[in-house]
Each structure stands twice: as C-alpha cells, then as structure tokens.
Amino acid sequence: MKIIASDYDGTLNRSGISDSVRKAIDMWREHGNIFGIVTGRGIGNVLSVMRRDNFKSDFFVANNGSVVADTSGNILFCHTGDTSVTCDVCRLILAHGCGAACVNYVDSEVFVCSSDFAKKHEDYVLIDSFSDDKGFTQISTVCSDDSASERLTAVIND
Fold first, then answer.
1. Could you report the per-residue pLDDT of 63-92, keeping only the tens digit for each?
2. Which of 18, 36, 115, 143 is most exposed by smallest CB count within 10 Å?
C-alpha cells in the first residue's frame, strides 16, 4: 500500500477535475492505495466541493494543516488558534490595507471587515462587533499587491 496526496486548487482542480486525472486516482485507489487532498481551504468547503463533484478522497488535510479529516469528513485532528489573538490579528490585517479577513473555523467561516468595506458586503461582520469564542483554524486575506502583503507579513511576524 502506498499513500499520495495532492493540493486541490490549481493542481488537482484546474477548472474542474479532468476525466483522465479522475480515472488515474480511481485506479490508484482500486489497487489498495490511499489518496488524499491537502488544501488551504476549510474542511467544510472542500467536503462540499467533493460531494458536488462526486469525487472520493481517503483523507483531507485542510486549512493548511490545522484540520485533518477522514473520507467521511470526520475530524481526526484539529488545532485551533488562541481566541485572545483573533481580533488583534484581524485588526492588523484591516489596518494594513486589506479589505477583509476570513476567519476559518472547523464548521464555518466569518468575513471580518471595516465599516467602509461592509457597505459593499452585507454578510460580513464589522470588526467592532466580532468576537472569537471557538478558536480559529486559519485566518486569511488578500492584499492589494505584493508590497502590501510583505508589509503585513512583517508586522504579523513581529
């Protein structure tokens, strides 16, 4: 028996999972081998996509390693961040030119933003009314450009 895993976005999935890739993975599994998906996506998101596309995986490593689940989506391992830092990290993200921070949990995600950004996105939560009582599995954002990303990374690392 052998084990192999693949990233999902841009690797396994390139505008969908091709028939040839799907057949190769099916053959791999039919020979008693194990196939997994490793992704930055949240576990709920990747499981939903797998069900929608009728694609089978023996295990999932989600949120860049903080959540591991079996083929049915049962959580085998979960590491959550300290709830006392969630709001501070989100405030740093917003203060450095990012419109929103996506806070992932095992079972959901919340987009946290400033008041200016909330006018465009009704379902986002304002930073002043946000609190984390679960412990996050990942916080992500999109910066306006590489230099903004580098500055934010330096601040967070400090």
1. 999 999 999 999 999 999 999 999 999 999
2. 115
pLDDT at 116: 72
Pull the structure tokens for residue 5.
Answer: 């895993």
Written as one letter, the residue type at 16 is: G
* C-alpha triplet 72, 18, 25: angle, nearest 5°: 50
% of the chain exceeding 90 in pLDDT = 57
Per the structure block, which two tokens stand in for 62? Answer: 């989600």
